[in-house]
């Protein structure tokens, strides 16, 4: 279930697949999620079900994703007009494919959910104690690649970390079984996977990177720069309807979960409501968003994200923040307050 692997966007994709670009006709939009339907995706399901897209003159087709890296490549290839992806995936992609440049038009996750996660009894009661321990994560994944930057911010001796590589699907099981002392990954994914295999919640310890010195942006609505130039009103309308969907979800979480359940019979409403609550509190309604409003863009933070990812992936020609982030498609500030 692990999502958002930068390794997908940092490898040969950027060997772009030969996908015929999707033609946007009027307000027709194909939108790719980052993963199978989860709680936070309810903002777009409600935007569709409640007619927010329709009222904005949009016809939106929402497809599940297979990881943020895959979604970023599909949008950059032209298969989708827009997508929801970890914005870090765009740093190397844009550097390698400037003609297919992705732009963040709404930072839904003001903070990344990437975290260091362990269990009680593993000898790690604060991030610094990870030094000398065995940490697990897929090789090339974002949480592992940018760990050195987190380590520097959190005072961890990164040179003493013993890494164990595994498939993303095995990460949480290996932590639960004691094969590694801790893992890095997305908090709301690993946390509930551990709960799912019977780990008591009070045994789980976690330190999100963004709350411990490495304050990076997380997932965003993205689109190709050339498409945005031709379809500015479609982009702005999509963002506005998405925010209306988020407000509807915040106001009625059970209703949002029920709406997703109608589309995905195997959807666990109770678990996903809890996953959304964690995502809401740690990544969406952050202190920054409560002060400045949904989607508020701080270019200094954008520059930090680009620098950290460029260093992690050895990008010699990183894109500028101005080429990768914009707030021009956001509603007026007064309409974004929460």
From TrEMBL:
Chain ranges of the SsuA/THI5-like domain: 39-251
Keyword Secreted: no
Domain of life: Bacteria
Keyword Signal attributed: yes
Record keywords, A-Z: Iron, Metal-binding, Pyridoxal phosphate, Signal, Thiamine biosynthesis, Transferase
Alphabetized InterPro entries for the sequence: NMT1/THI5, SsuA/THI5
Annotated catalysed reactions: N(6)-(pyridoxal phosphate)-L-lysyl-[4-amino-5-hydroxymethyl-2-methylpyrimidine phosphate synthase] + L-histidyl-[4-amino-5-hydroxymethyl-2-methylpyrimidine phosphate synthase] + 2 Fe(3+) + 4 H2O = L-lysyl-[4-amino-5-hydroxymethyl-2-methylpyrimidine phosphate synthase] + (2S)-2-amino-5-hydroxy-4-oxopentanoyl-[4-amino-5-hydroxymethyl-2-methylpyrimidine phosphate synthase] + 4-amino-2-methyl-5-(phosphooxymethyl)pyrimidine + 3-oxopropanoate + 2 Fe(2+) + 2 H(+)
Signal peptide (residue range): 1-24
SUPFAM superfamilies: Periplasmic binding protein-like II
A Pfam entry, by short name: NMT1
Pathway where this protein functions: Cofactor biosynthesis; thiamine diphosphate biosynthesis
Assembly behavior: Homodimer.
Role: Responsible for the formation of the pyrimidine heterocycle in the thiamine biosynthesis pathway. Catalyzes the formation of hydroxymethylpyrimidine phosphate (HMP-P) from histidine and pyridoxal phosphate (PLP). The protein uses PLP and the active site histidine to form HMP-P, generating an inactive enzyme. The enzyme can only undergo a single turnover, which suggests it is a suicide enzyme.
Family in the record: Belongs to the NMT1/THI5 family.
Name of protein: Thiamine pyrimidine synthase
Organism ancestry: Bacteria, Pseudomonadati, Pseudomonadota, Alphaproteobacteria, Acetobacterales
